Amino acid sequence: MGAxxxxxxxxxxxxxxxxxxTAVEFYDFYIYATAASLVFGPxxxxxxxxxAQLLAAYASFGLAFLxxxxxxxxFGHFGDRVGRKSTLVASxxxxxxxxxxxxxxxxxxxxxxxxxLLLCLLRFGQGFGxxxxxxxxxxxxxxxAPPGWRARFGMVPQLGAPVGFIAANGLFLILGVRLTPEQxxxxxxRLPFLASALLVGxxxxxxxxxxxxxxxxxxxxxxxxxxxxxxxxxxxxxREAIAGTxxxxxxxxxxxxxxxxxxxxxxxxxxxxxxxxxxxxxxxILFMAAGIVAAGWLADRTNPRGVLMAGCIGTILxxxxxxxxxxxxxxxxxxxxxxxxxxxxxxxxxxxxxxLPGLFPAHVRYTGxxxxxxxxxxxxxALAPIVSxxxxxxxxxxxxxxxxxxAGVISLAALxxxxxxxxxxxx
Length: 427
Prior knowledge:
- This protein is mainly α.
- It has helices spanning about 1-5, 10-40, 40-45, 50-80, 85-100, 110, 115-130, 135-140, 150-160, 160-180, 180-190, 190-205, 215-220, 230-235, 240-245, 250-270, 275-300, 305-325, 330-350, 350-355, 365-395, 395-415.
């Protein structure tokens, strides 16, 4: 049965839908992270210093992570009761609509405190939509995977992360080259948010052609869906949910330190031109894509948990490299750190699509995987740019490296606490 459903145009459509949807969703998320690092501080948050403005912009960035568990519970509820397809369409529309609306926001100078309030409200909507995206996209892939292929199928939606990052930062880089700093500050930053509407249209066109996953259909045929999937997760699968939450901390921490924090630190403290730093990150993100592919292949040859644990060890080692490489100011050294960190990111992120859904049975899998992933995002992602900037201001980059190493230790301990290999979510 697995081989049959893995064949031909149907497989390409399934994997394409899991990839394009997450690419669009992460594009939306990353353009906010990039804009928060570059322009949102002075445009939306009055403050006495550039560092304080940057911290305020990072705080608005982190707001979406608080919304993600709420989105995970709502979209997970319908994903486990109604189906994966319609829920994925709704999450895409929610985030895409909020992202497009940011393009039309007035600044603090035009509207006063209403401007940052509206920005934070739309940022919350972005996080709410993304809360239902990753879990559904991962299930779409792994619940259609043939035997022995679930990690490689599960890595496909993970590849949406570097694709979305390249699209987001690439567009900002082009705008930075073509526009003057004044033009970019006044209106150029709005164009990537406006472009989201076109990308969402592509994602919808692909996803509306899907059918329901065979695993979900079989679960419905066996028994009616739970009335409140979240309650069942908390009642019967709490240990797995807690371990899954802390297992993803390293993934979020290393990514947002190597992207959002590094960009803000590099362009302010190190005074590296914005276009130069974006170019370094665009080159380094290719190492993340390579890491995801390698980790997916290794996870099928061995097991996803073991590959994730190796990635956590790499995260700890990356913490030792952060200060000497990122703090030196040399573009070559900075690129080396970004490349190593994002390669490691591939190993703590790529196998999650196979491992995390496998912790939960099919009838609560959307809710369980989404909640764990997005709660871990608060701990590892929402705090990472804020805490890292505060640590860098007070104690320098070595403290940021310690922070990254601690994140790796936390995830390693969580993975070690679940010694059994996760069951096959495609079965």
